[in-house]
Amino acid sequence: QVQLVESGGGLVLSGGSLTLSCAASGRTFSSLAMAWFRQAPGKEREFVAAISWSFYTNYAGSVRGQFTISRDNAKNTVYLQMNSLKPEDTAVYYCAADQRHALGSLTYQYAYWGQGTQVTVSS
Q1: Can you tell me the distance from the alpha carbon of 34 to that of 29, in angstroms, rounded to the nearest whole number?
Q2: What is the pLDDT of residues 10-54, one digit of tens each?
Q3: Beta strand pairing call for 117-122 and 10-13
Q4: E strands within 14-76?
Q5: In Å, how far from its chain's centre is CA 87?
Q6: Which of 84, 57, 18 is closest to 7 using CA atoms?
Q7: 3: part of which helix (H) or strand (E)?
């Protein structure tokens, strides 16, 4: 079993930056593929970014060049650096993990999920 706890969400003005963190426990972190998804009100959960156990990355087209995913295996933590935030980035952001699917962009490819952290971008 893997436990994931997100932090770092909050309210930010349009054009601002935030860094989300997701701390993992319960499994060897270095063997996990990690990802971030988000869900806006009334919309389906969508893929944002993923990072494999070998540090390869994958991004949704809508955030490529704006967001950066990274991981620190010594701290069992994955990060999502978000720059130039826009109101349409407002959503609950979820951390996800899996031991089999690397760089997956579909929700069913991740077995473990955090509770989410709210990001609100105000114009």
Answers
A1: 9
A2: 999 999 999 999 999 987 899 999 999 999 999 999 999 999 999
A3: parallel
A4: 18-25, 33-39, 46-51, 57-59, 67-72
A5: 18
A6: 18
A7: strand 3-7
